[in-house]
Amino acid sequence: KTSCGIEELTLHLEDMTDSNTKEGDETHRLTRQIRHAMRRLTCALVHNTSLRKLKIGGWGCENGGVFDDKSWSCLVKAIEENQNLEVLELYMCAINDIQACRLSLVLASTNNTLRELYLYKNMISDVVAERFAEALKTNSTLRKLYLYKNMISDIGAERFAEALKTNNTLRVLD
């Protein structure tokens, strides 16, 4: 295990794009580079013992998202195994239902350190909202969950309302 002493890491990927960049090949190349960097970063996080807050965002749906299967798997494994990560913010990353479902399973079972989870402006639907609601029934550490500007309707909101009848820990659900 490694500890480099970094407690907070923020990657706002919109800042990496050049407004003068031409569409097509250049965007595709940049997306590949970002995904490769995410693979390296997320796989390294599995062994990190000091990071408490991770924020990644700004490379939205129009670019195909930040995470490929490998980087998402590494991130989920890091969340399962890292006993220090307290805040995870993944905004405008084009996180889909399959990816979010894997994250909800971790919240329901193995993670007992994550206190704040921000997943706003992604592609999460009612199906996964139900999974998160189920996770809240057993998770006793999550205090804030932000899912706004996803594809969650009144149906998903009803599932959360049911879960909050038994969850006494969550303080913010947006």
The major β-sheet equals: 6 strands, parallel
CA distance, first residue to last residue? 35 Å
Query: Hey, roughly how much beta strand do the residues contain?
Result: 5-15%
Question: What's the helix count?
Answer: 5
Spatial sequence of strands, sheet with the most strands: 1-2-3-4-5-6
Instruction: Indicate the radius of gyration in whole angstroms.
Output: 16 Å
Give the total of beta strands. Answer: 6
Helix content: 25-40%
* Poorly predicted regions: none
Shape: globular
> Which structural class do you get from the secondary structure elements?
alpha/beta
Mean pLDDT rating: 85
SSE succession: EHEHEHEHEHE
Overall description:
This protein has 174 residues and is of the alpha/beta class. The protein has five helices and six strands. The chain has a six-stranded parallel sheet, with no helix packed on it. Helix 3 links the parallel strand 3 and strand 4.
